[in-house]
Amino acid sequence: MSTPARRRLMRDFKRLQEDPPTGVSGAPTDNNIMIWNAVIFGPHDTPFEDGTFKLTIEFTEEYPNKPPTVRFVSKMFHPNVYADGGICLDILQNRWSPTYDVSAILTSIQSLLSDPNPNSPANSMAAQLYKENRREYEKRVKACVEQSFSLLDEPNPNSPANSLAAQLYQENKREYEKRVATVVEQSWLNFQESHTEDPR
């Protein structure tokens, strides 16, 4: 079934492929264009640098008139991220506009990692540490960064957790980012194989 929301999401994905923003990636899940997987790379010169953070984006048929629900799947320690991964961001709430697309959503969240707003906290502990004890705040963020490497690892009880991703990042960053993009975009390939509706 082709609907305005689904056609718009197809356009969003096409734009994301043709003009990809730096440091973000996203694609529909295997058989549902209304649910997306996404990845945000931690911005440079922030405590989140080197991290690879997974998110889910859930749309309704009211998109783009109403914003999607966006959550971090990866563990996060950030003043504006709730314990369940929900994100306190104005464009996902009272300042949403139908002109925003998936690319704008992901880049806005990436900017939030660079510039938290501790005065509107979703995580009061993170907000307090960000303002009063930056060293402890950054220590906790770094722990999340290390956990985020698990995106690329295959389960292997005989090897240390995150070893593949950590090694790739250190030795061949281009290959690392290529593999992360592949993890996300593989879901789009599966979606195309199982999806029969005409996107026009």
From TrEMBL:
<feature type="active site" description="Glycyl thioester intermediate">
    <location>
        <position position="88"/>
    </location>
</feature>
<keyword id="KW-0808">Transferase</keyword>
<feature type="domain" description="UBC core">
    <location>
        <begin position="4"/>
        <end position="150"/>
    </location>
</feature>
<dbReference type="GO" id="GO:0061631">
    <property type="term" value="F:ubiquitin conjugating enzyme activity"/>
</dbReference>
<keyword id="KW-0175">Coiled coil</keyword>
<dbReference type="Pfam" id="PF00179">
    <property type="entry name" value="UQ_con"/>
</dbReference>
<dbReference type="InterPro" id="IPR016135">
    <property type="entry name" value="UBQ-conjugating_enzyme/RWD"/>
</dbReference>
<dbReference type="GO" id="GO:0005524">
    <property type="term" value="F:ATP binding"/>
</dbReference>
<dbReference type="InterPro" id="IPR023313">
    <property type="entry name" value="UBQ-conjugating_AS"/>
</dbReference>
<dbReference type="GO" id="GO:0006281">
    <property type="term" value="P:DNA repair"/>
</dbReference>
<dbReference type="InterPro" id="IPR000608">
    <property type="entry name" value="UBC"/>
</dbReference>
<feature type="coiled-coil region">
    <location>
        <begin position="127"/>
        <end position="186"/>
    </location>
</feature>
<comment type="similarity">
    <text>Belongs to the ubiquitin-conjugating enzyme family.</text>
</comment>
<keyword id="KW-0547">Nucleotide-binding</keyword>
<keyword id="KW-0067">ATP-binding</keyword>
<dbReference type="InterPro" id="IPR050113">
    <property type="entry name" value="Ub_conjugating_enzyme"/>
</dbReference>
<keyword id="KW-0833">Ubl conjugation pathway</keyword>
<protein>
    <recommendedName>
        <fullName>E2 ubiquitin-conjugating enzyme</fullName>
        <ecNumber>2.3.2.23</ecNumber>
    </recommendedName>
</protein>
